[in-house]
Structure formats: C-alpha cells, structure tokens
UniProtKB/TrEMBL annotation:
InterPro entries: HipA-like_C (IPR012893), HipA_Ser/Thr_kinase (IPR052028). One of its GO terms (molecular function) is protein serine/threonine kinase activity. GO terms for cellular component: cytosol. This is HipA protein. Residues 179-399 form the HipA-like C-terminal domain. Coiled coil: none annotated.
Length: 434
C-alpha cells in the first residue's frame, strides 16, 4: 500500500518562568506517511538562544548546550522514535484524542498525529504551544468555572458512548482535548486557580472520583507533595474530583504562568512499549543527573515514598507517563512533579506487581522488602529507608479513617478494601529486622 507523504512545519513556542506570554523557541518539522509520523527535526531560533532564561524544549533530545555550541544544529529524536519526547508530552493522549476525534467526526485513531497536536488547544499540559509563524498570536482560551460541570459531564458521556456532541455541549472540545489518560477530564477555572476536573465513568466498579481524591489525601498524610484537591457533588448525584494544575502558576495581574513539564518517558528516551523495562531507580538516577540544585535528595526521598505507597495501595498504573519532571529555572534543574493519578486497584491475587521495576533481584514484584533492597540508589541508608517504610505502613493501615473523613461511604470502602495490603504479608517483617 502506498501512503501519501507530507511535512508539517510549526513554530514551537514556550512560556518561560515568570511570564504569561509565550515566545518562539524554534521550528519543528514532522514527516508523516499517511497518518503515521515517521521522522521529525527541530532547530532552535538564534534569538531564543540569546535569552538568558532560555529553557531546553526537550532536555534529553534538544539540549541547549549543544545548540549554543553549534548554531542551527538540527536535532532529531532518539533512535527508534518518530517524535521528540517533549513534543509527544504536549500532544493529547487517549482521552484528549477521543475528544478531538468526536469534534472532527473521525474514526478512533484515524487522524494524523499532526491533527491531534494542532487541535489540543491552548490549555495543553506544560509550557509548549505550536503556531504557524513566529508572530502568530495564541489561541483564545477562556476557561469555564465549576458551574459548567454538568454540561462537561454530559458531553464526556456522549463521547464515551461514541455519539456526536451537540453544539450546546461543545465547550468540552476546548477544555477537554489537551489531556492524556483514558478517563474523561477537563480543565476549569475556580477561585482564581486552574483545576483538572476528573469525571466518573458508567462502567466504574466504585466511585473513582471520591476514591482517587481520598487516596491522594492519604498520600499527603504520608508526607508526599500533592496538589490541592476538592470533591464536587452535583445535584444529579454525580461526583467529580478537582485537582489543582501543578503546571499553572497564578500571576499578580490575574493571568497564569506555565511550568515546563516533561514525562519520565521523555527523560528516559523511551517509547510507551518500553515502560516495563524501566524502574524507579532509573528515575532516581535521572534526578541525580538533572535534578534542581538543593532538591535532589528531597526528590529522591519523595520518589522512594511514592514507590512504597503504590505497593501498599496497589496502584499498578505507575507507568512512565504518570511520573513527571518540572523545570525549576531558579535552581537550574528539574524537580519531581507533584503526585497525580493514584488510584487503588482491588485485586484477589496475593502476588502483585507494579509497572516499573522496584528492586534489582525481584524486579517489579510489589513487596516492601523488594522496595528496601535498593534503597541506596535513592540516597538512603537501609535503616532510614526501613523507618520510612514502617511509617507509611502505619499511616496506610488506617486508610478507612482517612477515606471516611473525605466522604467516601463505607460501601465504597468495602469495594476497594482488597487493594490495601497488610504490610506484614508483603515483607514488613523483613524490613523490621533491619
């Protein structure tokens, strides 16, 4: 079969720290055969490279140091990838693609990658944008408030059912097309802050919005960095979780700055299909190499806690897109982002696994002794790591108390109880011997 070959050229804009206005960083060219991307190139603009606060669009595949050393160097993605990781991060993933397909009346995965990039809108994750010329203005992007939640939920339900969204509900097209993950969501403005609204799905086996919020608040009790969360109970009985966007910063004049975000997938130069070969220690090593000055130890500790927490609550959706890094220009490096997308998964089996590797000998096996086995790679002494594991175990053991405090009914707690594991049965005894 012969496919038409086309080249898509756009200027990549980036919003730098402390500003609400994006500036052109360089030019992207993407080659497609039919709807499939096959190759891409990127060249930084000379004017951008002269900026004192210039930030690498992709720290791994487009390093500024190389661009400044050899002007107009043409960057290409890592071997085996058609797209640069940071460009891929700025594109919509599963849910956002479904929104765009509904908007354009297209079949599932039936559009060129460039269409998904072009239609993700002004609210996409992170600080990047794509425009036709260096002087093109930003797309208008007024955000709805929480009063629009019922409309957004109705539109999301129609998309899940494969039905065209009527004009009166098409607000979702502008505020729901940017995000990844399979679950429906949208962005809104409330109390002068930007929030991701996460919606229920008809096939859910439990109240996911309430449970996810309570799980994040449980993680906060364990000492992890978690964005502000809220629950909204609509008059028709539906629940929505709001989580504040960590990639948006309110500015004094009422506008918003953007934080440059890349996924762990990008930092490790990997394709989605490679995720199972990655490990938490790979992410820890990334912090050692690229972490913000003065925060490396704290972020490695945070990462260790998240790994242990995922084991305790059976969050086995810990793939590389669910870990992110945020640029910290003041401290000249990357911070581990705030925690997001953590949902317990009820299971019957006693032997469980995470997506990412936990320890060197037992791989992805989700046990506490496996987590302890490579504590040194997180900058922790064994006894200190053991104390952390014991503390998290003691907090998570009281999960029902915290969940009920965040309005999760007992009936919903019963549905997810099998996700919360008894620490003694998954290696705590071995940890306590350290």
């Amino acid at each position: 079969m012969i496919f038409n070959t086309s080249t898509w050229s756009k200027y990549v804009f980036i919003t730098l720290e402390g500003s609400s206005e994006a500036v052109p960083a360089g030019k992207l060219e993407l080659l497609e055969e039919g709807i499939r991307p096959t190759a891409s190139t990127f060249v930084y603009g000379n004017k951008y490279l002269q900026r004192a606060n210039a930030t690498a669009v992709d720290p791994v595949s487009m390093p500024l140091s190389e661009a400044k050393k050899t002007r107009e160097v043409v960057f290409q993605p890592p071997a085996g990838l058609a797209l640069f990781g940071a460009i891929r991060d700025a594109a919509p993933d599963s849910w956002g693609r479904r929104v765009i397909e509904n908007m354009l009346r297209a079949a599932p995965n039936g559009l060129p990658e460039t269409d998904y990039l072009a239609h993700a809108g002004p609210h996409r994750t992170g600080a990047l944008d794509f425009r036709d010329s260096p002087t093109s203005p930003a797309q208008p992007g007024k955000l709805p408030d929480a009063k629009a939640l019922s409309y957004l939920l109705d539109a999301a339900a129609m998309i899940q059912e494969g039905k065209p969204v009527p004009k009166k509900l098409q607000l979702l097209f502008s505020v729901g097309a940017t995000f990844g993950g399979a679950r429906p969501k949208a962005v809104l403005l409330d109390d002068n802050r930007q929030w991701v609204a996460k919606f229920p799905v008809a096939r859910d086996g439990f109240n996911v919005p309430l449970v996810e919020r309570a799980t994040l608040e449980l993680a906060r009790q364990c000492g992890m960095r978690v964005p502000t969360t809220r629950s909204v109970h609509l008059p028709d009985g539906r629940d929505v979780m709001l989580i504040e966007r960590f990639d948006r910063v309110p500015l004094p004049e009422g506008s918003f700055g953007k934080r440059h975000v890349v996924s762990a997938l990008t930092m490790l130069k990997m394709h989605e299909s490679d995720t199972a070969s990655a490990s938490y220690t790979d992410l820890s090593d990334t912090l050692s190499e690229r972490g913000a000055v003065g925060f490396v130890a704290a972020d490695k500790l945070e990462l260790f806690k998240r790994m242990v927490f995922n084991i305790l609550v059976t969050n086995d959706d810990d793939h590389l897109r669910n870990h992110a890094f945020v640029w910290d220009g003041a401290n000249k490096g990357w911070r581990l982002s705030e925690l997001y997308d953590v949902v317990p998964k009820p299971q019957v089996g006693s032997e469980r696994f995470l997506v990412l590797g936990v320890g060197p000998a037992m791989g992805r096996l989700a046990t506490l002794d496996n987590a302890l086995s490579d504590a040194g790679r997180f900058g922790l002494l064994k006894h200190a790591a053991a104390e952390i594991i014991q503390h998290l175990s003691s907090v998570v053991r009281e999960w029902r108390t915290y969940f009920e405090a965040f309005d999760v009914p007992k009936s919903e707690c019963d549905k997810i109880a099998s996700a919360f594991r008894k620490p003694q049965s998954i290696g705590l005894r071995e940890v306590e011997k350290v």
